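Anyone up for a design puzzle?
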């Protein structure tokens, strides 16, 4: 009843509140006078109940008027919680968590250590006590466990691990066949955006008069086919092919060009009955990590 009353009187002013205080005080005085004079009727349930209801109304009215102003938002503690990566492997097969943990630690060799949590069947949380170890893992990828590529990303403050987009992997891509006269920074960037999303160039691989290939860091969407090549259209209407090779490229499909499965398990092969001789992709697109020829 009291709650209903406050909802109806939600916009009550301070004057109303003080008027109610006065009304309650008056009722208490009258009740005390009656009590002193021995009038047992003053203790009757209706009178006590009325005072209790009034106090309840006043208390809720104070809540409506009062409150505290929120302080400035605190900076989140930049402890170990910030240096976390969440990751999944591009495979349908079960990952042996304990073994994977040992393998990744031996490959990454984090100076300040690390530990892993299993969040789901194929979702892992990598904790790094030091940001340099985490950044090295991000910069030097892609990484694999038993030939299965790891897709990982840093968890930004305020995000849950399962909210992080795990569909992109950075690769070093070698661009073969590009004449040096066209190898401007601007055109290299355009080539990177043609293959995926351009990130950076390898400064050790640029600047000379001749290179057998140019090396670009590119973010690739794991749901899209790899780009094999690109036609370079010259101003004199002639053209030539520029080809792409991917460093540390593991399992991918020679039929559809998508990472994470082979043609043996490719739906396109099943649905369209494509023979292996007609596969457009091949092992020639893989190349070991090399900085310069
Ligand atoms: Zn496929």
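Challenge accepted. My sequence:
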């Amino acid at each position: 009843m009291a709650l209903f009353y406050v909802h109806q009187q939600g916009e009550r002013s301070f004057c109303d509140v003080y008027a109610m205080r006065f009304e309650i005080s008056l009722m208490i005085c009258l009740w005390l006078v009656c009590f002193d004079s021995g009038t047992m009727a003053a203790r009757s349930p209706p009178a006590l109940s009325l005072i209790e209801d009034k106090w309840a109304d006043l208390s809720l009215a104070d809540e409506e008027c009062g409150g505290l102003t929120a302080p400035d938002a605190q900076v989140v503690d930049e402890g170990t919680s910030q240096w976390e990566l969440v990751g999944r492997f591009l495979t349908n097969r079960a990952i042996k968590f304990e073994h994977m943990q040992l393998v990744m630690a031996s490959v990454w060799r984090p100076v300040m250590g690390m530990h892993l949590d299993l969040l789901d069947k194929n979702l892992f949380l990598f904790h790094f006590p030091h940001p340099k170890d985490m950044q090295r893992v991000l910069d030097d990828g892609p990484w694999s466990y038993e030939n299965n590529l790891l897709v990982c990303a840093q968890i930004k403050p305020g995000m849950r691990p399962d909210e992080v987009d795990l569909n992109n992997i950075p690769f070093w891509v070698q661009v073969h066949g590009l004449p040096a006269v066209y190898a401007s920074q601007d055109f290299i960037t355009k080539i990177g955006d043609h293959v995926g999303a351009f990130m950076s160039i390898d400064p050790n691989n640029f600047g000379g008069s001749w290179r057998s290939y140019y090396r670009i860091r590119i973010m690739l969407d794991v749901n899209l086919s790899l780009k094999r090549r690109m036609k370079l259209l010259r101003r004199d209407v002639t053209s030539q092919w520029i080809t792409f090779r991917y460093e540390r490229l593991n399992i991918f499909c020679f039929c559809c060009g998508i990472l994470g499965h082979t043609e043996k398990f490719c739906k396109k092969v099943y649905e369209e009955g494509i023979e292996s001789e007609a596969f457009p992709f091949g092992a020639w697109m893989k190349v070991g990590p090399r900085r310069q020829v």
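A detail worth pointing out: The mean pLDDT is 79.
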